[in-house]
Amino acid sequence: MKSYFVKRILSSLITLLIISFITFVFVALLPGNPAEVLLGEFATPETTAVLTHEWGLDKPILYRYGIWMGNVVRGNFGESIISRIPVRSLIARAWPVSVELCLLSLVIACGVGIPLGVATAIMKRRPERLAMISVLVAQSVPSFVSGILMILIFSVKLKWLPSSGYVSFLEDPLQNMKVMIMPALSLGLVIAALLARFTRSCMLDALGADFVRTARAKGLTETTVLLRHAFRSAMIPVVSLLGTQLVWFLGGAIIQEIVFVLPGLGRAVVRAVMGRDYAAIQAVVLLMATVAAVANLLVDLIYGLLDPRIRYD
Amino acid sequence: MRFSRLSVMCVLGFVLVLLAGTAMVSAAPKYGGTLKVALWGDIETLDATKTPQVPVADSIRWSIWEPLVRYVGGDELYEPRLAESWEWKDPTTIVFHLRHGVTFHDGSPFTSEDVKFTIERMKDPANALANAGYVKLISAVVPVDAYTAEMTLSVPYSGLLTNLDYVLMVSKANPPTATGKPNGTGPFKFVEWIPGDHLTIEKFTGYWNPSLPYLDRIIFTPIPDEQTRIANLESDAVQFIDDISLAQLTRVKSNSKLSLYTGPIGSKLIAALFVTTVPPMDNLLVRRAIAYCMDRAGFVSTAFLGNGFVTENIYSPENPYYNPATESVHPYSLDTARALFKEAGYPASFPPEASPIVITIPTGNPAFENAAVLLQSSLREAGVPCDVQKYDMSAWVTVRETKQIVITLYSYGGVDPSIVLSTNLISPTKNVPHFYNQALTDLMSQAASTQDLTLRKQFYYVIQQYLADQAPFSVFASYETRHAAQSYLKGVLVSQSLSQPYYEEMWLDK
Predict the structure, then answer these.
(1) Residue B470 and residue B124: Cα distance in Å, rounded?
(2) Which of A120, B162, B309, B328 has the fewest CB atoms inside 10 Å of its own CB, making it the most exposed?
(3) Count of CB contacts below 8 A, A vs B?
(4) Which of B45, B179, B367, B36 is nearest to A261 (CA)?
């Protein structure tokens, strides 16, 4: 198992290197540059050239990539081109917000989606149909639409929840929950719907399997059959799906962060792209790729816990 | 005890006067409170002298820094700010008498040395400051004494004072930098900036006008999504939002708890620019034909829901130099357009492989998208294939600069007619249509430098007629910039030059 994980880590590092290079080149080749963003309508070839030179953007792409990579290895992600703020501090401020949003959304998605999926697999027809219609609606409504609707209902009309203004959990837990509940719901419910349908499908497969028939034949209670046998088997593909959806969470969080004005990584990367802030774009993409790689590794670990037959070579 | 009717009336009258007096007293500005403002875009830098970006301008530009004079329009035209008074010694020399007792936020005094430093810093190409064009005609600044600065121009220029409204006075000892603490003479001083989250400023107790500002603190939050921004205002999470789109006016107007504030009438205009050095825009007949395809009334009713003004003139009708003869040189007429296209050599129908005329626009501007689609539809109806291509703002600036476009859209404004003519619209040094004409340039210089207002008007009339005839661009419409606020926010003033809000006289009536 040790050698398996060493190999996985090494291959992840190579993947991250390739991702960072491709991102660097693609972003550098985009039309427009940060000097034009800053100077706007008043950009002239002369002023643009002065700033481009000042920021080192007139150097060859490979040279700039090499410098950047060398700094990254030393833990220095550079400075935001326009604001001159170290990218590391921009990310340090932003990532806890995104992580909190993703975790809350994940809890909602799993807490609603998996039980609903299990329930609809064992329900009778009419309740099961009602539940599936609700799931379809939840999956069909885009998260930015549900987000804005929630703001209009709970913030504008009812004034129960704030429409914006992030406060960290450590500063004020109650206010933090009030701020985060709507974005977490609008993001989590979409995944909950997907999870519910997938879990239902996996449960139905498991419930029809031979080992479940054997468990029933042995005289085990239905609850034991469901939870200890069918559910555990059904969770293997569900866990795999969750692993792939984790990256979706990070991407989907961008929409929620914009709608609910949360200062997370998603908003940071949108600002960076619009402003051609190359250093910030690189750092955030690298961070997200790392999260995806770590998530996949964790999913593999959980596989082993769920299914003792799985061995790592 | 019996009271006469007269005595009862006197008592009632006294009570009414007392109540009226109380009401008048309660209408006086209240000191204190924190104002929360939602901006439509992110603040990218703390150096407001470096960028014309509106979110920066709408927040810290005139809160933290100040100019020598402020354009206010009307009969007075200019209001003294850091300069108490000024006089022209001759057509190219103006003397400013600076206000005494003004200090920067770091406590250092504001003197004529700072005026000289500010102008020279803007003119220095090594600093690459966005607004350098506003001072290009200033050849020298001489500090006569600590509170007197003599400014010399390279040529007479009647728009100087309007230009100086955009020139923020900075400290020679502690000038602005991208990350350094902003240091100005304005009514508010910098507190903190969390990029992407908020920027906070607070009352400067050493401000030269001791009765201002009223507010203790202002917190600016960027909320790019307009629906969220307006929802925040409706829920009272913020009290002021800048630059709402005209399509949202009905929603704001229908809310009795909200108020609207507008910039000067016709403060912004939208035009289609034709790159005159690239086929087919190098053909005047084609440019005129496209101008006839512009459904201006349709644009105002769809893009602005009627909240705009149809005009084809480079200036809005409220501008004193507006030439009514050029109001409608190319009224919407597809038949006329077809005839002109035919005269220009366009076939009645195009083969499938024919290259369409491409209208290139930046994303994120609903008015531009609306105008582009309308124009595309008209051109197709006139028999000319046309596509619309979108780029984000940064890429649009690049493709525009590298002449990869034939038509684009442009929004501009400006109070002084010479300022409008110095923009990318038709500046003699650099403009998007690449339309350069020495006679036109000479006329522009003469118009800008003449002190005789009647003669100046005549010059601008000729310029407007010439541009209308040559059609390097064609204007769609003019509109006003609008801001929205909670009704209990009082004292809202909007710049008459750039439509941006001034915060020093705002106060919270709650």
Answers:
(1) 35
(2) B328
(3) 145
(4) B36
Quickly tell me which residue has 């507010």 as its tokens: B215
Residue of B52, B231, B424 with shortest CB distance to A152: B231
The residue type at A17: L
Q: Please state, in angstroms and rounded to a whole number, the distance separating the CA atoms of residues B261 and A124.
A: 60
Contact B467, B323 (CB under 8 A): no
Which secondary structure element, helix H or strand E, spans residue B202, and what is its range?
Answer: strand B198-203
- Say how far apart CA A300 and CA A208 lie, in whole Å: 26
Residue B171 Cα, gap to closest chain A Cα (Å): 20
Number of C-beta neighbours around residue A170 at 10 A:
8
* Residue found by looking up tokens 């030179």 in the block: A53
Q: What pLDDT sits at residue B69?
A: 95
Task: Give the nearest chain B residue to A255 (CA atoms).
Answer: B225
> Cα separation of B468 and B478, whole Å?
16
Q: What does residue B491 show for φ and ψ, rounded to 5 degrees?
A: 70, 25
Q: Judging by beta carbons within 10 Å of its beta carbon (0-12, 13-18, 19+), is residue A305 exposed, middle or buried?
A: exposed
**What is the tens place of the pLDDT at every residue in B4-60?**
666 666 555 555 555 444 444 447 899 999 999 999 888 888 888 887 777 777 788
What separation in angstroms does the CA of B67 have from each of B81, B110, B115, B503? 7, 12, 10, 15
Residue B182, both tokens: 């902003």
| Nearest CA-CA partner of A264 in A249, A246, A242 | A249
CA atoms of B276 and B271, how far apart (whole Å) = 15
Task: Give the span between the Cα atoms of A39 and B68, in whole angstroms.
Answer: 23
Say what angle helices A143-150 and A231-259 make with each other, to 10 degrees. 60
Query: Chain A, 17-76: which have a CB under 8 Å from a chain B CB?
Result: 30-48, 50-51, 54
> Which tokens in the block code for residue A81?
């081109």
Angle, CA B61 vertex, CA B55 and CA B66 arms, to 5°:
165
Buried b (16+ CB within 10 A) or exposed e, B350-372: eeeeeebbbbbbbeebebbbbbb
Instruction: Write down the pTM of the prediction.
Output: 0.86
Maximum pairwise Cα distance, chain A: 84
Searching chain B, which residue's CA lies closest to the CA of residue A41?
A: B424
Note whether B395 contacts A: Cβ–Cβ < 8 A: yes
Tell me the shortest Cα–Cα distance from A72 to chain B, in angstroms: 22
Whether residue B396 and residue A34 make contact (CB cut-off 8 A), yes or no, is no
Q: How far apart are the first and last CA of chain B?
A: 44
Cβ of B228 within 8 Å of Cβ of A90? The answer is: no
CA distance to partner chain B, nearest, from residue A249 (Å)? 20
Task: Tell me the per-residue pLDDT of B286-324, one tens digit each, with 9 for 90 and over.
Answer: 999 999 999 999 998 888 888 888 989 998 887 888 999
ipTM of the complex: 0.82
Write out the two tokens for B226: 């307009």
- Cis omega (within 30 of 0) for bond into B213: yes
